[in-house]
Amino acid sequence: MAVAAVVLYLVFAALGFGWRSWRQWRTTGSAGFRGISRGSGSLEWIAGTGFVAAIVTGVTAPLLQLAGVLAPLDVLNASWIQTAGVVLAVTGSGATVYAQNDMGESWRIGVDPSETTTLVHQGVFAVVRNPIFTAMLIFALGIVFMTPNPLAVAGFALLVAAIEVQVRVVEEPYLRAVHGQHYREYTATVGRFLPRVGLS
C-alpha cells in the first residue's frame, strides 16, 4: 500500500495545488499563493511552517515504509484498514478539488491582510466553513490508514494542529475584520470543520 499512498499523494498535490493554482491564474491572473502572513516566530508563521512540515512528513512516511526504514504499527496493520484508507484518500482528494471549485475566485493559499475577497457561503461552504481543510484531513487520514507507521501518525497530528492554528489565528480574525457582522452571522449557523460543530 505504500506505493499507492505515494501515488495518491502525488495526484493530490497535482490536483489540489498545481492544477488549482494554474486554473486560478488563468481566471484571475494570480496563482492564489499569499504565503505566510507574519514574520518568523509568530503564530501565523508557526501555522504556515507547520502545514508545510506536515505535508512533507505525510509523503515521507510512506516512502520510508516502502524503503523498509519504518514498519506499520501492529494495531493498524490490517487489510480492511488499508482498504478504508484508499477510500478515504480518494474521497478526500476529490472533495478538496470540489470545495476549491466552490470557492471560485476567492480561493487562496494564505492570507493577505490588505486584500478583500468575497465571503463564500454557498455550496459546500453552506455546510461547513472550512470544507477544503476538512477534505484535506480526510485525505491525510486515508494515507495514515494506508501506511500506518509512527511518522505518518505524527504527520497527521501535526497537520491537525497546523490547520487549527491557521483557521483560528489567521483566517477567522481576518474574515471577521473584513466581513464584520455578515461573517459573525455565518459562523453562528455553520460549523467550522463539521456541520453544526464549532459554531461561534
TrEMBL record:
Principal location: membrane
CC per GO annotation: endomembrane system
Annotated transmembrane regions: 6-22, 43-67, 79-99, 119-145
Gene Ontology biological process terms from the UniProt entry: methylation
Membrane is among the record's keywords: yes
MF-aspect GO terms: methyltransferase activity
Entry's localization field: Endomembrane system
UniProt entry keywords in alphabetical sequence: Membrane, Methyltransferase, Transferase, Transmembrane, Transmembrane helix
Membrane topology: Multi-pass membrane protein
Pfam families: PEMT
PANTHER family cross-referenced by the UniProt entry: PROTEIN-S ISOPRENYLCYSTEINE O-METHYLTRANSFERASE, PROTEIN-S-ISOPRENYLCYSTEINE O-METHYLTRANSFERASE
Protein name: Isoprenylcysteine carboxyl methyltransferase
UniProt lineage: Bacteria, Bacillati, Actinomycetota, Actinomycetes, Mycobacteriales
